Every structure is written in structure tokens, then in C-alpha cells.
Amino acid sequence: FPGDEVADEQIKQTCIDVFTGYVGISPFESNNGDFRYWFPSQTGWEAGDLRWACALVTDDTRTGSIAGANS
């Protein structure tokens, strides 16, 4: 386990890069919703859970993709 701070920074940067490439703008400049990401705890990591996730969370009802929404 690389540690919470290192894991947080690495996963956050990966999610930012993916979001920016997909939407066309940084998640911190976007008004498409709240940017979130998750990664395993040290216990989970040591048990073999290396999954992480990125998400855009909104309160409104959306249909369709946000791909290129801000290109």
C-alpha cells in the first residue's frame, strides 16, 4: 500500500486526466456535477482489492453522455 496521501494523489490525478479527456474540461472548472473518486483502504489493498473509481455526481436527471460537453 503506497499510503493514503500517495494513493489519494495518484488516483485523483488519474481521474482528473480521464475526466478532462472525456468531457473536455477539468472537473474543477465543469458545471456538470460534483467530481468524486474512491480507492481502497490499506486493509482492502492488502486483501487484494486494488479497484478504484471516478464518478460525476449530479442532483438532476440527465439522459445521454457528457462526452465532449465542454469541448
Describe the structure in brief:
With 71 residues, the chain is of the alpha+beta class. Helices cover 35% and strands 14% of the residues. The protein has a two-stranded antiparallel ribbon with strand order 1-2.
What keyword list fits this structure?
alpha+beta; 14% strand; 71 residues
Measured by DSSP, the beta-strand proportion falls in 5-15%
Strand order of the largest sheet: 1-2
Largest sheet: 2 strands, antiparallel
Helicity level, as a percent range? 25-40%
Provide structural commentary.
The chain has 71 residues and is an alpha+beta fold. The mean pLDDT is 87. The longest helix has 20 residues, at 4-23. Strands 1-2 form a two-stranded antiparallel ribbon. 35% of the residues lie in helices and 14% in strands. The chain has helices at residues 4-23, 42-46; strands at 34-38, 53-57.
Could you outline the blueprint of secondary structure elements for this entry?
Layout: H1 4-23, E1 34-38, H2 42-46, E2 53-57
Antiparallel strand pairs: 1-2
